[in-house]
UniProtKB/TrEMBL annotation:
This is Glutathione S-transferase. InterPro entries: Glutathione-S-Trfase_C-like, Glutathione-S-Trfase_C_sf, Glutathione_S-Trfase, Glutathione_S-Trfase_N, GST_C, GST_superfamily, Thioredoxin-like_sf. Residues 3-82 form the GST N-terminal domain. Residues 84-212 form the GST C-terminal domain. The lineage of its organism: Eukaryota, Sar, Alveolata, Ciliophora, Postciliodesmatophora.
Length: 212
């Protein structure tokens, strides 16, 4: 990918983390501009965030917003969007679903409504995990990528969701058993995906630790 790239987002994982992971996985140099909520009040109405929301991806002084559109653009540039329309649908549907969940969880965390977030995780997430498990198992019994036979943007979205919410150190102690019971193939797939990339491992080990 060509050009000078800056990703503007908050100093949280939120909806920008799959974008950060993609840049690190593919060794694409970018500036990770993490903005504090305190500074955001001055920047929100600045012209670089035309819609008053983050993330904004800046490439050679052009600004792009809307997280899934940004991911779709990157996926096409990098070559991790399927050509087949049915596979593209499978990628889009899983990404749209997880991004929606991610946005809602981020909102709950910003409002400090952690009680509601925990309730959703315990009551509703097991049903989602079983559906993700069924979807993954249908694709060559979960032995390959999440969709089709080659890496797609869905792998990054699913990985980030599984890792940051349930399986990273600190979360695994609480949720690993639930994931193992509802989605054993997905759990194995998540660890395998991480193990397959020294770049991703190194990023995860060195990144700032945020709560959400
Ligand atoms: N539709 C946009 C929504 C972006 C969005 O809601 N961003 C939130 C953070 S995840 C934000 O900028 N909140 C700060 C604000 O609204 O002032 C997208 O998908 O990227």
């Amino acid at each position: 990918m060509e050009g000078e790239i800056t990703l503007h987002y908050f100093n949280i994982y939120g909806t920008a983390e799959p974008i950060r992971m993609i840049f690190h996985y593919f060794n694409i140099p970018f500036r990770d501009n993490q903005i504090s909520f305190q500074d955001w009040s001055h920047l929100k109405h600045n012209s670089f965030v035309r819609i008053g929301k983050l993330p904004v991806l800046e490439i050679d002084n052009e600004n792009y917003s809307e997280c899934y559109s940004i991911l779709g653009y990157l996926a096409n540039e990098i070559g991790i969007m399927p050509d087949d329309w049915m596979e593209k649908y499978l990628v889009d549907s899983i990404c749209e679903f997880i991004i929606g969940v991610n946005k809602n969880f981020t909102k709950l965390a910003i409002k400090n409504d952690l009680e509601n977030k925990e309730r959703i995780i315990h009551e509703i997430v097991p049903k989602w995990l079983r559906r993700f498990e069924a979807r993954l198992s249908k694709n060559n019994e979960g032995k390959d990528c999440f969709v089709g036979k080659r890496l797609t943007v869905a792998d990054f979205i699913v990985f980030q969701f599984m890792w940051d919410y349930f399986l990273k150190p600190g979360k695994a102690e609480i949720y690993r058993l639930m994931v193992e019971q509802c989605a054993p193939t997905l759990m194995e797939w998540t660890y395998r995906f991480l193990d397959s990339s020294p770049e991703l491992i190194s990023y995860i080990e060195s990144r700032d630790q945020f709560i959400f």
